[in-house]
Amino acid sequence: MSALLEVNSVSRRFGGVEALKDITFSVHGGEIFSIIGPNGAGKTTLFNLLTGVFYADEGSILFNSHDITRKRTFEIARLGIQRTFQNLQIFLNMNCIENVKTACHTRISSGMISGCLRLKKVIQEERIVEKWAMEALDFVGMKDLALAPSDTLPYGLLKRLEIARALAAKPSLILLDEPAAGLNDTETLEMRHLIESISRSGITVMLVEHNMSLVMEISHRIMVLNYGQCLKLGTPTEVQKDPEVIAAYLGEAAG
Ligand SMILES: Nc1ncnc2c1ncn2[C@@H]1O[C@H](COP(=O)(O)OP(=O)(O)OP(=O)(O)O)[C@@H](O)[C@H]1O
Ligand SMILES: [Mg+2]
Predict the structure, then answer these.
(1) What domains are there in the chain, each with its CATH number?
(2) What is the pLDDT of residues 117-131, one digit of tens each?
């Protein structure tokens, strides 16, 4: 399998905190690759580096052979990485389809000036955006809620809406930061099915999650972070039986 994402010796500090320290790994196309570890281990920081929210102090990140180490968020989105957030980032003053469309506009955009000059192209683009947004809502089972105000949705649906927004931009890699947090058992099972169908559709998935049964059941490989360092990288079986991982995290997460 070829590597879609290559992270080479990446470090990131915040003041005196070493949020990530010399992290190296690669993710293959088609994988469900999970990152687990205690609170503050550096999981969200890694997603922030992969999406240009922050830059690495050291090291490099290659995506699809493009060096994205210093690229900006919208450039990375255009190259095909999308994400969801640990703390939902939904525009509550917009309805569902408007929320989803915001991601498509970063992917294909004529820009204001050319937009004024070439109205026909803008209209064509608007049609594509509408189509992509509806397809994404359909994918997550929310087509009928396209016009529903997002501030009326229960939490579980807001999480799905955020995933729809990421999917609408046609990523080849999606980063999901705690998609099952705050969900009940039924919603968690539905989320599992959704993640599996995203994977089956050909999109590579990186998952940060504290729900260990979900992680162990759907991941191809797992990286365990602890205090910004990689404690273990392996299959679910390898990770689950590692004494250091059990001591640092799994004992506590399972208990
Ligand atoms: N913007 C920031 N400014 C200062 N410190 C930060 C910032 N972002 C993260 N950190 C610090 O970096 C470390 C890693 O944080 P991070 O959010 O990546 O952890 P996490 O593994 O996602 O934890 P959790 O499971 O609680 O979400 C923590 O010590 C955190 O306080
Ligand atoms: Mg986090």
Answers:
(1) 1-80+172-255 (3.40.50.300), 90-170 (no CATH)
(2) 667 777 888 889 999
